[in-house]
Amino acid sequence: MAPAPDSALRCAAMPDRASPLPSLDALLRSPEAAVLIDRFGRTATAYALRTVLAARRAARSFHAPPIAILDEAADTLARQFAASQRLVFNLTGTVLHTNLGRAPLPPEAAEAAAAAMGSATTLEFDLATGRRGERDDHIAPLLCQLTGAEAATVVNNNAAAVLLVLNTLALGKQVPVSRGELIEIGGAFRIPEIMARAGAILREVGTTNRTHPRDYQQAIGPETALLMRVHPSNYAIAGFTASVGTADLAAIAHTANLPLVEDLGSGSLVDLAVWGLPHEPTPQESLAAGANIVTFSGDKLLGGPQAGLIVGNKEVIKRINANPMKRALRLDKGRLAALEHVLHLYLDPDRLRDRLPTLRLLTRPEPDIRATADRLLPHLRAAFPDRPVAVEPCRSQIGSGALPVDLLPSAALTIGGNSLETLANSLRKLPRPVVGRIASGRVWLDCRCLEPENESAFVAQLSGKG
Ligand SMILES: *Cc1c(COP(=O)(O)O)cnc(C)c1O
Questions:
Q1: DSSP 8-state class, residue 330
Q2: Cα 456 to averaged position of ligand 1 atoms, centre (Å)
Q3: Whose CA is nearest to atom 2 of ligand 1?
């Protein structure tokens, strides 16, 4: 029953009691499969065909013509080979949206990352001596200059930074932390759990709303490794509250001959108040107030790639770098290249706002945002003729837990009507998906993160939607 190649499909298509579906071999010999093989390769094409055949068999759907099976496999392959991680328009109103990839890099930083990833580099190579170099050397001097720290290192993210610092300094020893700072950042980052995984023993002090210097003093004993302060970045407690500031806690730590570690979370390298934003603590302030080690994220307010930055005391950084865990948490050459580029921008604070997308988006004036919304309004009305579309004031969030109570005045395009979930879904199905949010009976598209140079791309894909 081995059919000749050219008649394979016709033969295979004929219902046969023993083998009612066409055979994989027969399908692979068809001209339609040849097109798929040319585009996706023989292995992937065979896998897709086999998967479709198995699904038909499982559904007892035996009488499919070969062309239907080939079409289904072509769809499967097209879906499989399309990038899973897509570029989207972030119109959620949250600038540093963790689920949407946090800080957008300056284009030159992204280019530097791409170039480094596509080539051999001096990642750990000293051109002057021709010998091994240190990957941290690309960014440590910059971080020291910008923060006033003696030494610096960098790891995968701030969660890794906290893990590494605690594991280096407090393995098997106690770390007093205020009950008001036992935060969860989202996902699995909770201070008590990170502490446990780092091998340190959490010693809770104070209460949720009030912690005093004596609470720390009473907790310090021979088993204490360090004092730790965590910036409760994603929530605020108001009312009858008290906490111990960095300078006071540093004094308590140093009196007991202990280091003070501060996890700043977002940690901005510049005073955001200069641009009219609420002040967020900076690593330089923490160090000046006496913190010995400060950790913060690369892709939150800093506006760089995902990274965890550790700055502070030279001896401590040396110990951190000698911890074998450092190797498991280190940064790759692409992100190091991007981070180096972003840190260079901070050397010239006068032009930082124009060059760093995160800062530009966070400080974008409301009239600018409204102008974008006004320009887009007719296009959105044309795309959704049966729905009420308007420009309305709204408030954006910084995101990523930074400054949780401070909202930035912004403007949104709103789309009303029925079935808002369906509408939001259709926006997510656009070639470059548009992600907004549903509130008060409308879909809100906050235009803060839609900069003028992207408006035409946004408009171009709207035609034909409705
Ligand atoms: C965000 C945050 C972290 C975690 O930082 P990642 O860079 O997301 O790993 C840790 N601590 C605080 C206080 C944070 O705000």
A1: P
A2: 35
A3: 265
SS3 459: helix
Mutating to test ligand 1, I would choose from 96, 155, 233 the residue with most ligand atoms within 8 A of its C-beta, which is: 233
Return the sign of the alpha-carbon dihedral for residues 125, 152, 101, 409.
negative
Q: Give the distance (Å) from ligand 1 centre to CA of residue 107.
A: 24
Q: Does residue 391 sit in helix, strand or coil?
A: strand
Contact 11, 29 (CB under 8 A): no
pLDDT one-digit tens code per residue, 112-128: 999 999 999 999 999 99
Give the pLDDT of residue 100: 97
Residue pair 446/93 in contact (Cβ under 8 Å)? The answer is yes
Whose C-alpha lies nearest to ligand 1, atom 5? 158
Extents of the domains making up the chain: 18-81, 89-97+360-460, 107-355
Q: What is the pLDDT of residues 362-411, one digit of tens each?
A: 999 999 999 999 999 999 999 999 999 999 999 999 988 666 666 899 99
The residue assigned the tokens 């480094």 is 116
User: Ligand 1: does its nearest atom lie under 6 Å from the Cβ of 265?
Assistant: yes
For residue 191, pLDDT over 60 is answered with yes
Measure 42 CA to ligand 1 centroid, in angstroms: 45
What are the structure tokens assigned to 324, written together?
A: 């074998």
Reported as a pLDDT band with limits 50, 70 and 90, residue 3 is: very low
User: 296 CA distance to ligand 1 centroid (A)?
Assistant: 7
Q: Whose CA is nearest to atom 6 of ligand 1?
A: 158
- Report, as an integer, the average pLDDT of 285-296: 98
Q: State which fold the 89-97+360-460 domain adopts.
A: Aspartate Aminotransferase, domain 1 (3.90.1150)
Q: Are 281 and 365 in contact (CB under 8 A)?
A: no
> What are 115's two structure tokens?
């170039």
Probe residue for ligand 1, chosen from 263, 268, 339 as the CB with the greatest number of ligand atoms within 8 Å: 263
Q: How confident is the model at residue 300 (pLDDT cuts 50, 70, 90)?
A: very high
Among the four given CATH numbers 3.40.50.2300, 3.40.50.1700, 3.30.70.1350, 3.40.640.10, the one describing domain 107-355: 3.40.640.10
